[in-house]
Write a structure and sequence with these properties.
- With 334 residues, this protein is of the alpha/beta class.
- It folds into two domains: 52 residues, Ribosomal Protein L24e, Chain: T, CATH 2.30.170; 268 residues, P-loop containing nucleotide triphosphate hydrolases (Rossmann fold).
- A hairpin with a 3-residue loop joins strand 14 and strand 15.
- The strands form four sheets. The protein has a ten-stranded mixed β-sheet with strand order 8-7-6-9-10-5-11-12-14-15, sandwiched between helices. It has a three-stranded antiparallel β-sheet with strand order 13-16-17, with no helix packed on it.
- Helix content is 32%, strand content 21%.
């Protein structure tokens, strides 16, 4: 038997630092405040700094059953994720469900709506039997209206609303944030940052952008690239607030999907090859930097109130996971 001292690391259950939450690679520094990986963490704790439940904001479950079955350890909270799908694959419903699951967790959401007016964006929740009115009253919802100011007859649109639409608009109150020039990506980015400040969204909450196709139709390709790069840095990386952005799988190729702009891609596709007489859809994670995921397609169904569910369980959940795009036999790299 070796006479060497046992370190803070074991093969299967590494000792984790009581401040940063990461594995302790060598001998821990033990104090009355706990066991730490470094002097930096020890001093930070002694000065009153806390990083409670680090995994809580570093890794978050999406709340969407098929995604969580493919990403068992949770989505990175600092990720910018494209949700890509052709028409008929429930892409918009998935984006709405991601936002709703965040509300269910007691968090706040911000929706950048290019594709619909705010009332139609909110209507997507009601269509799924998800009552968003209490969250509107609690001040946990913001809809950045990048649609209404693009209408040729904006006043006519507002005057033509029916009683239900008027009710939803009144209930939204301060939740609707007007963007006077949706084609000015700097204004949109600044408005989004101001909204996150107002909601105190740091290490909590979620942002949805629907849709990048509409943004791409408004501005030059390079401006789309710069917008995504900027909000990824200022929202995801600086605040640990994830962004999910919808884009058509058959849309413009100018919407970037390279590793320097987005951290993850969730694909939706029609699966007529499985049952030619049925319009089936499938979901897969194509890419997710820094997280473990299973590289397989899941056939999904949509049910009001339940959202997207797996119609057929994953055939082989013991398959080798993928981490940062490479097969891994050791699980997730943090």
């Amino acid at each position: 038997m070796s006479g060497h001292q046992t370190t803070g690391r074991t093969d299967h259950h590494p000792l984790r630092c009581d401040h940063c939450g990461y594995p302790i690679p060598d001998e821990p520094i033990s104090t009355d405040g706990g066991r730490f990986c470094s002097t930096s963490c020890t001093e930070a704790t002694e000065s009153g700094s806390t990083l409670s439940d680090l995994e809580g904001y570093k890794r978050v479950p999406s709340g969407v059953e098929p995604i969580d079955s493919l990403v068992p350890n949770g989505m990175p909270a600092d990720a910018f994720v494209l949700v890509s799908g052709e028409e008929g694959t429930r892409r918009s419903e998935l984006l709405t469900e991601l936002a709703w699951r965040a509300l269910e967790r007691g968090e706040s959401i911000a929706v950048v709506s290019y594709a619909n007016p705010p009332t139609a964006t909110l209507e997507r929740f009601f269509e799924n039997d998800w009552n968003v009115v209490p969250a509107l009253e609690d001040g946990r919802v913001r809809i950045l209206d990048c649609f209404t100011h693009r209408l040729a007859d904006r006043e006519g649109f507002l005057e033509a609303r029916n009683e239900w639409t008027e009710f939803v608009s009144d209930a939204a109150g301060d939740a609707i944030v007007d963007v006077s020039d949706p084609g000015d990506v700097r204004e949109v980015a600044n408005t989004l940052l101001g909204t996150l400040e107002d909601l105190e969204m740091t290490e909590t909450g979620l942002v949805v952008i629907d849709s990048l196709d509409e943004l791409d139709a408004l501005v030059q390709d390079q401006l789309v690239h710069n917008f995504l790069k900027d909000v990824r840095a200022t929202v995801c990386k600086a605040r640990y607030v994830p962004i999910f952005a919808g884009v058509s799988a058959t849309g413009n190729e100018s919407v970037p999907d390279d590793e320097y702009v987005v951290d993850g891609i969730v694909d939706l596709r029609l699966a007529d090859h499985l049952e030619p007489e049925a319009r089936l859809s499938q979901l897969a994670v194509r890419k997710l930097i820094g997280a473990r995921f299973l590289p397989q397609w899941i056939t999904v169904e949509y049910e009001p109130a339940r959202g997207l569910i797996a119609s057929v369980p994953p055939a082989d959940t013991a398959r080798t996971p993928v981490v940062d795009g490479e097969p891994s036999q050791y699980g997730s790299r943090r």
